[in-house]
Amino acid sequence: MNFLLTSLMNKGSGYMENPLRQNFFRAGHAHAGVIVILSLVCQILADGAVLPDPLLWFVRIAVPLSAILISSGFFFSVVPATINQTSGAVAQIYAGEVILALAVITLGVGLLRSPQPG
Q: What pLDDT is attached to residue 16?
């Protein structure tokens, strides 16, 4: 938060003149917040899932890890203030998405395997 406020207040940062950087920073913050909330929900749901221990640990670690990968991919792909095109760090976004999808699908299968009440 401090970095973003400093970038907004400092006229020499180039943040306000670079719409690509603004959009990617906005997307990085938004994805981080949403996926962290999703990871908290997944932690609670993982308690009721019927999965082997290694898969359960994969789910518990992979969802928060994907929040880190996706948001850092947005941030690091536009690191130079004068950048007009994304860098190779955008691959972190895709890696995080794949990890998130695998973890959520694994958790869903584990929840479907859990005994139903009644």
A: 76
